[in-house]
Amino acid sequence: MLPKRSHNNSTIRTLVRSQRGFSLVEILVALTLLGIAGTFVAGKIFEQLHEGKVQAAKIQMNQFAERLQEFRRKCGTYPETEQGLEALVTKPTGGRECKNYPPDGFIGGSGMVPQDPWNNYYGYVNEGSKFNIVSYGADLMEGGEDEDKDIWFRPPAGSEQQGESSEGAEF
Which are the contacts of 54, defined by CB distance < 8 A and separation ≥ 6? Predict the structure, then answer.
């Protein structure tokens, strides 16, 4: 048999008081601190997401540049500005005819020109012996600052660097 323990009233009151829990003020302070920390973490996540999209756009532009070089080798010139990057998927009907155009085009797969990471079409300009490619980013407008900067394959001639440019642009 276990011996009986006797508890006096002050011991019981102390036990009950110590098991009351947190006050409303303590809970609100904790929630406020969690909210502040969450805001900081979310900001960093969105910043990393934007940087990832910029890098993906630069990679796609470099891949387009390789396909455009191949187009030039087979057709003798870059596609006209009006033909755009669509000329890498479908044989151009206007302008200079390309007699060595491959049956499946220069970009395999779905038969469509890939869009930029913001699900918009890339801009393309034939500059004669060179070309340029641009993504206008999330705002779909020329120019912009911060996350709305344009991303260029190479910065346009005669202008300050308005946006990001693709590294290694030697075409």
Answer: 117, 151, 164
First to last CA, the chain: 93
**Residue in the block written with tokens 């946006």:** 163
Which residues are 158's β-sheet partners?
none
* Phi, psi dihedral angles at 27 (to 5 degrees): -65, -45
Contact 83, 96 (CB under 8 A): no
- Those residues whose C-beta lies under 8 Å from the C-beta of residue 103, and which sit 6 or more positions away, are none
Measured CA to CA, the distance from residue 75 to residue 96 in angstroms comes to 9
Category of 159 on φ-ψ map: left (φ > 0), alpha (ψ -120 to 50) or beta: beta
Residue 60: strand, helix, or coil: helix
pTM of the model: 0.69
**Interval 1-52: pLDDT, tens:** 555 555 566 666 665 565 667 888 888 999 998 888 888 888 788 788 889 9
d(CA 122, CA 64): 10
Residue 103 contacts residue 128 (beta carbons within 8 Å): no
104 φ, ψ (degrees, to nearest 5): -95, 10
Q: CA-based Rg of the chain, rounded to a whole angstrom?
A: 31
